[in-house]
Amino acid sequence: MVFDFLKRNEPPVPERKASATGPVVAFGTSGRVAWSPRDTASLTRTGFSGNPICFRAVKLIAEAAAALPLVLQDKERRYDVHPVLDLIGRPNLAQGRAELFEALYGQILLTGNGYVEAVGGDESVPFELHVLRSDRMSVVPGADGWPIAYEYSVGGRTHRFHLGEGASPVCQIKSFHPQDDHYGLSPMQAAASAIDVHNSASRWSKGLLDNAARPSGAIIYKGVDGTGGLSPDQYDRLVVEMEANYQGARNAGRPMLLEGGLDWKPMGFSPSDMEFQKTKESAGREIAIAFGIPPMLLGIPGDATYANYQEANRAFYRLTVLPLATRVTAAIGHWLSGFTGEQVEIKPDLDQVAALAQERDQQWRRVADASFLTLAEKRSLLGLPGLPEGETDAG
User: Fold this and answer.
1) Which InterPro entries does the record cross-reference, listed alphabetically (predicted)?
2) What is the edge-to-edge ordering of all strands in the sheet holding 137-141?
3) Residue 299 lies in a domain
4) Rounded distance, CA 176 to CA 184, Å?
5) Does 278 reside within a domain?
6) What angle separates helix 52-66 from helix 97-111, to the nearest 10 degrees?
7) pLDDT band for position 184 (cuts 50, 70, 90)
8) Is 120 left (phi over 0), alpha (psi -120 to 50) or beta?
9) Are residue 162 and residue 79 in the same domain, yes or no?
10) How many CB atoms lie within 10 A of CB 87?
11) How far, in whole angstroms, is CA 287 from its chain's centroid?
12) Which pLDDT band holds residue 3 (cuts at 50, 70, 90)?
């Protein structure tokens, strides 16, 4: 071209490293909202709001994870005073640290996604942090498959958070989903069938209680000659008297007075009726398994997997609470590092978790007795930052 010589002195455009599959993922969705195939409203209504097992599972995990003590450190030391600690300690005017993280963990457990918004701020840290409702948030992917914006919709109005240079105004934390590139998979979705079974069994039990807490029997009419039937008036009167005087929990056990050739034939529980309670307990156990909670912690009978409650509680923290809290706090720490300009790490302080005290004591004792390890190696094994500058193993 004639004007190619004008471009010879231009600095070369730096190459951006990106996944080769990004454009394939973004095909057909670039710049548009990527909708996730989930119905959060229905799952939350039938599961969290309408099922006691699921409600307790979400509350138990969220409250336990939010109550974990946190530490802030970098490669050199742990901080007792830091702007990030102040921000996390009082993220906004309406919430403290525990309330903010409980809401965040709850959103992740219910929807598989958690969103935290950074409000304002100076050159170091934001002024406030707010947890956004996951069911109102939508991801807008770009041409390379990565999000270029988030859209928050309420009542027909939408606010778009644009992602550009610098720290993102929104931090998305999502659970692993093998079939979705932009949204996470929640335990609620995995337990949806068990939740339906448990709710159906509860409705059946309620219906049983409404009918005198036992299966109904049969009223048989025998005429004078062994034939014939009740007149319409007689039938209506019998139905009204049965509903008023013999049905419902209030009339349970009340003797029945029959006349005019009427005979009562009671009916016992069928084998299928007897299995309903076991079906309900089995469904409750499946819900607990989906959330990673030992069933005995939720009061579900018949589970003897763990020797005692203390062992089950320790497994609950080790296998469920700590992995979730570690992943979420690491994401929050990495996100806030984009505002501060320094690489800091937020993580649970395992030495202050009462449920893990016995394990931590054993680990500290085992590491301390290892004479072949240096002091720096021992600190690394215990999750502590490196030695302060100027100190050595001998110091």
Assistant:
1) Phage/GTA_portal, Portal_HK97
2) 137-141, 147-154, 157-162
3) yes
4) 5
5) no
6) 140
7) very high
8) left
9) yes
10) 22
11) 12
12) very low
Locate 227 and state its tokens: 């034939």
Residue 84 lies in a domain: yes
- Rounded alpha-carbon distances, angstroms, from residue 251 to 204, 214, 216, 240, 254: 19, 12, 13, 14, 6
144 with 255, same domain: the answer is no
Specify whether the CB–CB gap between 168 and 181 falls below 8 A.
no
Q: For residue 352, what are the contacts with CB-CB under 8 A and spacing of at least 6? A: 69
Q: For residue 388, is pLDDT > 70? A: no
Whether residue 119 is found in the same domain as residue 223: no
pLDDT of residue 104: 97
Q: Which two tokens stand for residue 161?
A: 């958070």
The pLDDT value given to residue 360? 77
Task: Identify the domain containing residue 94 by its residue range.
Answer: 22-190+284-348
Same domain, 52 and 159: yes
Residues 180, 235 within the same domain: no
Q: What is the total count of domains within the chain?
A: 2
Provide the strand spans (E) within 164-298. Answer: 170-174, 218-221, 262-265
Are 122 and 246 part of one and the same domain? no
Dihedral, 241, 245, 248, 254 alpha carbons, nearest 10: -130
Task: Indicate the pLDDT class of residue 202, thresholds 50, 70 and 90.
Answer: confident
Q: Of 109, 157, 113, 156, nearest to 133 (Cα)?
A: 113
In a domain? residue 362: no
Residues 178 and 220 in one domain: no
Q: Strands 147-154 and 113-119: what pairing?
A: unpaired
Ranges of beta strands (E only) in the chain are: 70-73, 78-79, 113-119, 128-132, 137-141, 147-154, 157-162, 170-174, 218-221, 262-265, 345-348
Q: What are phi and psi of 160, to 5 degrees?
A: -105, 125
The CA-atom distances, in angstroms, between 370 and each of 364, 380, 381 are 10, 13, 11
